[in-house]
Amino acid sequence: MSAHQGAEQETTMTTLIDLDRRVDETEIDREIDEAEIGWLLTKRGAAVKAMDADYLVSRHAPGSTGFDITPARHGRDHAVTDAAALRDWFRTFEDSLDYSILDLSIVVGDDVAFAHSLDHFTATPFGARRAQVWLHVTTGLRRIGGCWLITHEHRSIASPPQ
């Protein structure tokens, strides 16, 4: 092998090693983002149980949209950043709420992510028996100022898992 070929091969190896490092760092970054988003969504489930309206709206970006099982306040859109509306909704229940997130799936891009889950909600509305609802939940998020914030949320009634 000539000196030129050896130098060329060394440059190629250095380039491949650098590419591997970047791929590894990107994969690690995505895993960190997935964990952060998973934590955010799990914490939101705990906030529903605690009826913590302030926390629930704090993780939404300004102008976010939502389509939910709760009554709409403004036309078809739901006031996902309106803590007072959430507190009013929480007051329609007699006792504690139960909320669990199942089958959470997260896909992360550079500054955009989507999550999908099957959620289970149990509560007792005033004057009614304890009821449970299964929900399909799709959440769109953006990284804004280095923090993942919810920009869109959609909940719809789902069949119980079998």
Corresponding CATH architecture: Roll
Write the CATH fold name: Nuclear Transport Factor 2, Chain: A
Poorly predicted runs = none
Radius of gyration, Cα only, in angstroms? 22 Å
Helix/strand/pairing category:
alpha+beta
Q: What is the total number of structural domains?
A: 1
Features:
162 residues; alpha+beta; Nuclear Transport Factor 2, Chain: A; five-stranded mixed sheet; 3 helices; elongated
Give a structural overview.
15% of the residues are buried. With 162 residues, the protein is α+β, with helices and mostly antiparallel strands. The longest helix is centred in the N-terminal third of the chain and has 47 residues. The protein has one domain: Nuclear Transport Factor 2, Chain: A, CATH 3.10.450. The protein is 38% helix and 35% strand. It has a five-stranded mixed β-sheet with strand order 1-5-4-3-2. The protein contains three helices and five strands.
Briefly, what is this?
This protein has helices spanning 3-49, 53-58, 83-90, and strands at residues 60-67, 98-108, 112-123, 131-144, 147-158.
Question: What's the topology here?
Answer:
Elements: H1 3-49, H2 53-58, E1 60-67, H3 83-90, E2 98-108, E3 112-123, E4 131-144, E5 147-158
Parallel strand pairs: 1-5
Antiparallel strand pairs: 2-3, 3-4, 4-5
